[in-house]
């Protein structure tokens, strides 16, 4: 059995996200962790794809993975995530809210704001009904692995 000594490096992206990469001879482990706050006002679902000349690892890190807001907007723009949702119970528009639960990979969720709705206290993941639904990785981690 070979020794699994490797190289560990930490890359800080825009002071909000820390990407930790551990390299060995046999595998690569990539972990992205969020720190700081998410600006809900910037979660519009619109991303200017013209700023990306080529989809390579450098440009993806620089323009898409540099903040959760950009990652969310990019995923909505290319239809990987739904930018709008309706409540399953009352059929009203759901609002994006910060997720206060520890351990969740995504810092925002959808919540119903209708006072008469039975589902008002429950949240709906932004990943529901998307390709990200069954994953425990963050959106940034998944896009970094794909790139």
Q: What order do the helices and strands come in, and which of them pair?
A:
Layout lengths: L6 E7 L3 E7 L4 E7 L22 H8 L3 H10 L16 E5 L9 E5 L10 E3 L13 H8 L1
Antiparallel strand pairs: 1-2, 2-3, 4-5, 5-6
Describe the structure.
There is one protein chain. By secondary structure, the chain is an alpha+beta fold. The longest helix has 10 residues, at 68-77. It has helices at residues 57-64, 68-77, 139-146; strands spanning 7-13, 17-23, 28-34, 94-98, 108-112, 123-125. The chain has one domain (7-128, 138-146). Strand 2 and strand 3 form a beta hairpin. Helix content is 18%, strand content 23%. It has 3 helices and 6 strands, in the order E-E-E-H-H-E-E-E-H. The strands form 2 sheets. The protein has a 3-stranded antiparallel sheet with strand order 1-2-3, covered by helices on one side. A 3-stranded antiparallel sheet has the order 4-5-6, with no helix packed on it.
For the structure shown, list the relevant keywords.
147 residues, three-stranded antiparallel β-sheet, 18% helix
Number of strands: 6
Molecular shape:
elongated
Rg over CA atoms: 17 Å
Strand content is 15-25%
Count of DSSP H/I helices? 3
The chain-level structural class is alpha+beta
Strand order of the largest sheet: 1-2-3
Distance between the termini: 31 Å
Please give the share of residues in helix.
10-25%
Domain count: the total is: 1
Elements, N to C (H/E): EEEHHEEEH
Largest sheet features: 3 strands, antiparallel
- Uncertain runs are 6-20, 30-35
Averaging pLDDT over every residue, what do you get? 76
């Amino acid at each position: 059995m070979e020794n699994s000594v490797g190289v560990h490096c930490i890359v800080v992206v825009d002071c909000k996200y820390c990407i930790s990469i551990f390299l060995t001879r046999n595998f690569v482990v990539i972990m992205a962790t969020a720190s700081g706050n998410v600006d809900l006002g910037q979660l519009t679902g619109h991303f200017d794809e013209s700023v990306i000349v080529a989809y390579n690892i450098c440009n993806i890190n620089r323009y898409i993975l540099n903040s959760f807001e950009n990652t969310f907007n990019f995923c909505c723009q290319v239809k990987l995530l739904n930018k709008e949702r309706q409540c399953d119970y009352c059929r009203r528009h759901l609002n994006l809210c910060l997720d206060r639960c520890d351990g969740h990979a995504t810092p925002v969720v959808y919540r119903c704001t209708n006072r008469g709705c039975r589902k008002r206290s429950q949240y709906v993941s932004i990943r529901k009904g998307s390709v990200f639904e069954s994953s425990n990785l963050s959106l940034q981690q998944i896009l970094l692995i794909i790139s």
